[in-house]
């Protein structure tokens, strides 16, 4: 498992090749890449600054990947989250999960992203032509989390 | 007892500080007690740590609730709902 918070960019091809490299039991690798969106009509986002709580971020991300591995068969996983100032179009986050079969890989990847968005202590501040403002948490992220019922 | 307080994101900016050491009465306490002490400072503490404003508390890097216990030396972080990913 590889769980990293860093300022610099990551190479998706290189990272995906490294997940479960050499593990011939892997039949599927699912991944998600999040990027800085340039905003919506009337709300141009030039860049974002990401802040985090380092001691807690690492713990939460590790717990998240461990929880995914309890629910599904996960042979390896990588989570990379960037912090600092990122321009529109830049990559923010990578989640990649390798499993024997695609169902587990898809589900675990989506689960990690959904829970990361509501539990991992990262905060985004947007820079727009009107100035800077902190991004507010979205109720739809809580709804996404509710899809994943606790394990019995 | 003393706890180390950390503030993040919009709360860090509004409170004008990233961290402080806070003395609380007794040898044990609870998050609710700490929040009360902070609210008694008046605005912006009383405004931002109210039921009208969603904030989160973590004790020793684990999400906590108002009834969570506190002991000397704990690290308590107060922050707005997270927006990563």
Quick one: overall form of chain B?
Answer: globular
Instruction: Report the portion of residues of chain B in β strands.
Output: 25-35%
Oligomeric category: heterodimer
Kindly report the name of the CATH homologous superfamily of chain A: Molybdopterin biosynthesis MoaE subunit
For the terminal residues of chain B, how far apart are their CA atoms? Answer: 37 Å
Separate helix tally of chain A: 4
In total, how many domains does the architecture of chain B comprise? 1
The CATH H-level homologous superfamily of chain B: Beta-grasp domain
Write the element-wise H/E pattern of chain B from the N-terminal end onward.
Answer: EHEEHHEEEE
In short:
The complex is a heterodimer of chains A (152) and B (85). Chain A has 152 residues and is of the alpha+beta class. Helices cover 34% and strands 36% of the residues of chain A.
Give structural notes.
The complex is a heterodimer of chains A (152) and B (85). In chain A, the strands form three sheets. Chain A has a four-stranded mixed β-sheet with strand order 1-6-8-2, with helices on both faces. A four-stranded antiparallel β-sheet of chain A has the order 7-5-9-10, with no helix packed on it. Chain A has a two-stranded antiparallel ribbon with strand order 3-4. Chain A has a single domain (2-144), classed as Aldehyde Oxidoreductase, domain 3, CATH 3.90.1170. Chain A has helices at residues 12-18, 54-71, 102-119, 139-146; strands at 2-6, 28-35, 39-40, 43-44, 47-52, 76-82, 84-87, 91-99, 122-128, 131-134. Chain A is an alpha+beta fold and 152 residues long. Chain B has 85 residues and is of the alpha+beta class. Chain B has one domain (2-79): Ubiquitin-like (UB roll) (Roll). Chain B is built from three helices and seven strands, in the order βαββααββββ. Chain B has helices at residues 9-15, 31-39, 45-48; strands spanning 2-7, 19-23, 28-30, 56-59, 62-64, 69-71, 75-79. A five-stranded mixed β-sheet of chain B has the order 2-1-7-4-5. Chain B has a two-stranded antiparallel sheet with strand order 3-6. The model of chain B has no long low-confidence stretch (mean pLDDT 95).
């Amino acid at each position: 498992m590889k769980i990293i918070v860093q300022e610099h960019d990551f190479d998706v091809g290189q990272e995906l090749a490294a997940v479960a490299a050499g593990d011939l039991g892997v039949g599927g690798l699912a991944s998600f890449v999040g990027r800085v969106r340039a905003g919506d009509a009337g709300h141009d986002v030039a860049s974002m600054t990401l802040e985090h709580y380092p001691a807690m971020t690492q713990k939460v991300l590790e717990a998240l990947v461990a929880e995914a591995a309890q629910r599904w068969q996960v042979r390896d996983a990588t989570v990379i989250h960037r912090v600092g100032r990122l321009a529109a179009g830049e990559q923010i986050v990578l989640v990649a999960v390798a499993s024997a079969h695609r169902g587990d890989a898809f589900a675990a990847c989506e689960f990690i992203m959904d829970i990361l968005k509501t539990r991992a202590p990262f905060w985004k501040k947007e820079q727009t032509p009107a100035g800077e403002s902190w991004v507010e948490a979205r109720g739809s992220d809580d709804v996404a989390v509710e899809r994943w019922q606790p394990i019995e | 007892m003393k706890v180390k307080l950390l503030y993040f994101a919009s709360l860090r900016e509004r409170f004008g500080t990233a961290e402080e050491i806070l003395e609380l009465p007794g040898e044990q306490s609870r998050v609710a007690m700490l929040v009360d002490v902070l609210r008694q400072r008046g605005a912006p503490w009383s405004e931002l740590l109210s039921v009208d404003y969603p904030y989160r508390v973590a004790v020793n890097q684990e999400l906590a609730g108002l009834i969570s216990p506190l002991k000397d030396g704990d690290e308590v972080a107060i922050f707005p709902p997270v927006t990563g990913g």
